[in-house]
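yo

u said u wanted the structure for the complex thing, so here. seqs first:
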Amino acid sequence: MATAAPLQLHPDRLLPADPAVRDVARRLHQRVRDLPVVSPHGHVPAAWLADDTPFRDPTSLLITPDHYVNRLLHSHGVDLADLGVGRSETDGPLDEAASRHAFRLLCSHWPAYRGTPVRFWLEAQLAELFGVRVRPSAETADGIYDQVAAALADDAFRPRALYDRFRIEVLATTDDPCDDLAAHRALAEDPTWHGRVVPTFRPDKYLEVGAPGWTALADRLEEVSGVDTGTWPGFLAALQNRRDYFRAHGAVSADHSHADARTDKLTPIEALDLYDLARKGELTADEATALRRHLMWEMARMSSEDGLVMTLHPGVHRDHHAPTAGRFGHDVGCDIPRTVEFPSALKPVLDDFGTHPGFRLVLFTLDETTFSREIAPLAGFYPSVFVGAPWWFLDAPDAIRRWRSTVSETVGFAKTSGFIDDTRAFCSIPARHDMARRLDAGHLAQLVAEHRLDEDEATETIVEMTTTTPRKVFRL
Amino acid sequence: MATAAPLQLHPDRLLPADPAVRDVARRLHQRVRDLPVVSPHGHVPAAWLADDTPFRDPTSLLITPDHYVNRLLHSHGVDLADLGVGRSETDGPLDEAASRHAFRLLCSHWPAYRGTPVRFWLEAQLAELFGVRVRPSAETADGIYDQVAAALADDAFRPRALYDRFRIEVLATTDDPCDDLAAHRALAEDPTWHGRVVPTFRPDKYLEVGAPGWTALADRLEEVSGVDTGTWPGFLAALQNRRDYFRAHGAVSADHSHADARTDKLTPIEALDLYDLARKGELTADEATALRRHLMWEMARMSSEDGLVMTLHPGVHRDHHAPTAGRFGHDVGCDIPRTVEFPSALKPVLDDFGTHPGFRLVLFTLDETTFSREIAPLAGFYPSVFVGAPWWFLDAPDAIRRWRSTVSETVGFAKTSGFIDDTRAFCSIPARHDMARRLDAGHLAQLVAEHRLDEDEATETIVEMTTTTPRKVFRL
Amino acid sequence: MATAAPLQLHPDRLLPADPAVRDVARRLHQRVRDLPVVSPHGHVPAAWLADDTPFRDPTSLLITPDHYVNRLLHSHGVDLADLGVGRSETDGPLDEAASRHAFRLLCSHWPAYRGTPVRFWLEAQLAELFGVRVRPSAETADGIYDQVAAALADDAFRPRALYDRFRIEVLATTDDPCDDLAAHRALAEDPTWHGRVVPTFRPDKYLEVGAPGWTALADRLEEVSGVDTGTWPGFLAALQNRRDYFRAHGAVSADHSHADARTDKLTPIEALDLYDLARKGELTADEATALRRHLMWEMARMSSEDGLVMTLHPGVHRDHHAPTAGRFGHDVGCDIPRTVEFPSALKPVLDDFGTHPGFRLVLFTLDETTFSREIAPLAGFYPSVFVGAPWWFLDAPDAIRRWRSTVSETVGFAKTSGFIDDTRAFCSIPARHDMARRLDAGHLAQLVAEHRLDEDEATETIVEMTTTTPRKVFRL
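structre next:
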């Protein structure tokens, strides 16, 4: 191991290369480096913090649940099963030998991550959190595994301790409308807990009225809400009931992700009739889509009334590789983006609620073409619309630079919603926010260097982007 | 006011940050900085110059007519009415108190413009034209208002004096085909006037044969042209009549902006039949679109014959927010871009006139995806086709850089049409052209620094881009 | 000529301008500058090397066959006929006077190529290969013509000598499935030949079952393969027969270019019925498209079985200007890109063969929007999918930078296929590969300068990109 390449995080990483620009960027980054993490959208389970159970092993922490990590290994021929993906509860997690093998697969494929943000996130975790000082490789894999495993046995690496160390101010989870939010409640009632974990209302599958299993979901919604979902008004009331329940447990937003962003309105009678057909399982595919789009309009209406910020993450081809989905389930790395269209899709909602003071709509996309053509122009007119941070495949340094460069000229900075980590990889949260802060510092420094902005304005702006704006946009 | 931040225009603003590249860019910019302004497409009313009436007040000059300024304020919750938008002739402009209030709204929202070109344009006007030396803010608003208002009372700030000070060589207006062009005529006949203001033929609404009110427009066309528009051949002849009238009054181009760029040809009999239905108000929406697309082919045919350069600005969702359009009218900032397609859309016109020596077609877009995929490849083959400058939402530093970087590799520089300010904000014209010159200087300097172009070639190129090419492309 | 501007290739051309970044880039470029050229896709005729006939004259070498050169001249009003385009065999090439005139047209339009890669390629050929020391212009045209013509008369400029001088390791041609590959065979049997020229199976027109002349092609396929193509199974067997013939002659890939990338499967009975209709010339346009798309699925199936790497170059509007195609034929510069969609289009193939160990699929595009949205996400999951290099209109410095910056963050470097010159301009091959190496060096140097990659990793990566990866991906 004496000859292993070192792993060192350079203090100027991701800052602009030009020395004069870098100087400004360094000052801007220093101003926000230690500000708290505001995370209004993500996928960490609240139970981790409620139970504060130690993380089990390096693989189940860093590899198995992270489809960013898995998909690239798979693209180089690694079997997802070897990474612990798709195991049932009865399977349980990988045993020690298999976990160690998975970690070796990651380390021996380290060059595959060159140029990707996954490398940045993993390096930051390994070096900053676990004190690893050697570059991952086939040779160093076991040593790194041991070092991480040893750390995880320490109380300082339990979820609550990390929550504090990460300086998290608020962490949003993503939850099923029928979830009882027991973990959120437990945290709220725990006098030893001083953080803030808020649920997010994510009703996608309840709106996909033509999908297999939807009837059972509608029944479950009735059971949990106590509102009869046998009729259209009842179904809407049950959804509102659960939104209220979420709000009572601290929720500030409702998140939506369908194949498209459409919000076409039906007449009341059309909606009622289609809903009746849905309950009978007699909807055509087109009718199911029509009712789902109308339901999105209803969600916007409810948002304008109850104040849950509406966030949209549309345009993903889920489970693109049918055999992989069949073998391993959903969210295992074979989702592929698709084109998306916002202006026509959102017109019904924006005509009705676009200037409504209670309405907030944050738009995310995997289709970069919409940044300058659609999202920025919409957010640059409608008081309710905000530009969401680059998401998923676009959550990477050059993509974030393209995004800032593309949207700022139309909407400035104050109508962007602030960074969203959107992750289930808890330990990557600080690195993800730090990446955004470094890139914002670089972007603003470039404007200063080109005399497009004074440095005092840039300093004020980066502080706003980091904490003020997300708190304001998400009513935190 | 002693503590107000200063407003200073740095001489190197918008030039590349790298010192070596900036040196080259500075030399290139200096070469063209003082060249005359050639403005072959814009929206300043000719009457301003014919009448030479002093501008009324800071708000009606800088805020009310400029939807770039308004839309961003609106996106931060400002009521457009407070900015003087949508007032009828009987309403008249805002009174002194309201005008001052509007100006305060702008200044107190100054941080909203960070990162946008609007800030660059406004700063240039405030600092260079009006001598303002403090950064706009709630505190400095009244002082700046007074300073601008005082300047406007000076004869040196009347439209003709500014025309000279701005070194405008030619300024194109945009006009209704039935306009009598009285202001243009008055200027032509005025021996004290030495500038050049040319009309532009903009027939959009006369081609939207299915729109409400079209019949009245066709009647009006008949009245003004003296040609019977009751038949299809008559309608075409009346349009040609008005094109000839415009040419006789100095017009060099015809401008077109529809939802798409299609130019599908009908057979003579189909066109004749659809036109008859149009006159009876019996066209379906699809038939109206078909006839409009065919009319675009007829416009191209006429352009190839009469030499009016055809400019296309397609792909805008007009009046996206129906309630705002209902309350304030058109062009108030709620237009949103949409995707556009050129190669198939223009094939009928290009098959027929693409190599016709009399035909010129300049393509503009709000859909950046077409730069490298469609517009540059078309202009890189067809002698008639030129790449228009970045337009509207794309008329900003980083977008202009993306545009140059994207189109030049396929068409070089000589097939780009030159900068178009496209503005109704008269006082912003020098700043807009200066922005383009600075960015062209930066782009060329980068090529020089990377040894892709010699500096003597870069110097020759920037002069051509600035004055030679637009004069040639627009036959000025 | 004493006053002519010099033509000098700067050793740092195309490297980043920032001095510190350039230092790193220079080291990286030096590491790969002299590595062999691996060219797995191109259009140089094998006969040139088999016959080793000297090139005839500067125009027929540098201008006539190169539609990159021609199209830009045409866009400035030059008649393609004056460049020797579209001459039949009986016409023969341009005579000396006409050839010299064509060369003068090129040189006098030299400024038209500023900012384009064509200039880089031509300069490299003129300066490095032919020793030209003056910038092309109307004045220097004849002198340069003479200098190039004199060189071509030298044995050192015959194809085989150049093949060696260019350090080509392997050169792929593109061939009709019915080609007897005589030139490839001659090379293989020639004991004095030590290079490697491999054919590529390009069956496009055999799959366009509804196109005029297809029946004759199917008959020809029967004749050449000796397999009855009167039935669907026979047609497939005949195609497989020719693939096997190509493989026996060294082919490593099959290349496909249709209007879209779709691979929709038909049932066996549907395919059989449509094929029968095709043989009778009774297919509708939609049916022809359906059968072509199914044939693409069959090609993928065969690729997974016989190991020919499948390369896709979809989304071109061929012969956009009908009059030009009518007068001069195909591939004369009036092809225009169109939008393309991959994830849905390829789903049938990827569901069936996406994880098949024998299957390789390399995706090229002229639609940049698919880089981050579709191609990189697909290659970042499927082991079989690789990101092809920027192609055609995108084979230029800034486009290549956009491409690297856009795809690397999702797939890293190891899932990009390596550079493809795709050219029929034999003498431009070294310049094209050198451009790619310089840009890769610049991209990696930027990552090093931003502390996103260590320099030892960058060095390893650029070597892999240049030779290791293309050898591996194309099974060379």
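The two ends of chain B are 48 Å apart (CA to CA). The longest strand of chain B covers residues 168-172.
cya
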